# Entry
Amino acid sequence: MKLTEEQVRHVARLARLALSPDELTRYGSQLSAILDAVDSLSQLDTSGVPPTSVIGAATPHLREDVVAGELGAKVALANAPQVEGSSFAIPKVIE
Amino acid sequence: MKTIVEIGAGLAEKKTSAVEVATAALASAKEDTFSAFLAIDEAGAMAAAKASDERRARGAALGPLDGVPVALKDNILTEGVVTTAGSKMLADFTPPYDATVTARLKAAGAVIIGKTNLDEFGMGSSTVNSAFKPTKNPFDPSRTPGGSSGGSAAAVAAGIVGGALGTDTGGSIRQPASFTGLVGLKPTYGRVSRAGVIAYASSLDQVGPMAHTVEDAALLLEAIEGFDANDSTSSDAKKTVWRDALRSGVKGLRIGLPREYFVDGMDAEVDSSVRAAAKRLEALGASVVDISLPHTKYALATYYVIAPCEASSNLGRYDGVRYGHRAADAKALKELYEKSRSEGFGPEVKRRIMLGTFALSSGYYDAYYRKAQQVRTLITRDFEQAFQSVDIVLSATSPVLPWRLDEKLDDPLAMYLMDVLTLPCSLAGLPGLSMPSGVSASGLPIGVQLLGRRFDEATLLRTAFALEKH
# Structure
């Protein structure tokens, strides 16, 4: 499947990636080639075959909903690029 | 170059101390001839080694890993030690807690020397996709050690540490083990906790051991496996003393050689090494039969839909807000996300994020993601069928020998094809082991892959053990 430049731009936008015009062209042709290879799946008749999302127990092991292993604000914020008080800081979103 | 068992014996017989062993390991890790390490934890390692010696002095040694130097792939969290996943995105990330496997190794007394290089977020088969440096193969420094756990492979193969942990999503433990003459085990999906392991594709990721011998790999597996409440997919399958299972031989076992795994373009020496391994197992009393896994040719396409889809979702968390790289000059939130991600991720990661984003996008989900999930079911059924008539599936691990680091691999698809023999096992959630089966005329290691039934690492390990001894 050949992706148009507009499709590549759309996908990059969805993925929150800013691409240069060069990257748009390069990824466009690489992704198209990969999708061509992947299109071999369409040869297979999979009607009635259930999808597998994860291999293992039919139901996941859920732990009790109790608070445990709290880091505390100081530790939780230690890797943040920008902090204000006990919060993560971001650029203003509302004027 | 010493095995875990040999190091353990030296410590038990008081021929050496954990501090002495750690000092030597740290010195060669710092020298790092093959660029295996991204971080070295000298203070942590020396403290752990001292504590180990003190335990032993009062007769309270913990077990076979107590005082043994190990290394961890750098996508496994280590409290207080920078963990990058091989990405600029996490270049300064210091985890506030240990992964479950890290905590379990520490509890077993292992001495963690440092963190090893990998393809960014585990995406690659060469370590060339690391944002920091490529790792070299100790057998030939002009060649790749494989990937993505190439740093762990080189650290063990070079004899810097006794063993290491890698992670395997589509072959990232088995292929580098094959390229560096090691034993590498990807456990059954669910046997080892993924809590605190930086996620790539969550339905496929699994942590496992890389070591010189089958017995060493079994010892590491024993230390890290078992149920963990912090991973909802971790299994409560009974913990096993794997070492006890090793020595029962292969008499009566049925070994299957899947004809689809002898692929076009396979290296002739690799091909004959697999057949020779089958002959050796036959001589030891196993029977060898040809089998068919008919959907094998669809595994590559299936994997390269499912893994990127999961990656695109998992890597959505890197937004430049809570941790990780933040672009310097973004004025609005959306710009902050886009710039931080574009600066922080390398090309292969961006490629897989976009591939996954596309395959999950409105209008394409059924044709790609759902379709791949259905084919995954067919691939899993192939194995279920095969394991009704055989106990082990035997093949090559990689169709080719380690390639040169300067070989131009600009075509991502050509690179993906290198994973063709390791992907089906991952998709089916089976345990898979790679072990040395010989050396090429050019002096490069060749590996064979053994696959077993789900949670039947016992048969896998005893077959590998028998093959290793003969």
User: Anything to note?
Assistant: The first helix of chain B runs from residue 4 to 12. Residues 1 and 159 of chain B are 4 Å apart (CA to CA). Chain B has a mean pLDDT of 96. The radius of gyration of chain B is 21 Å.
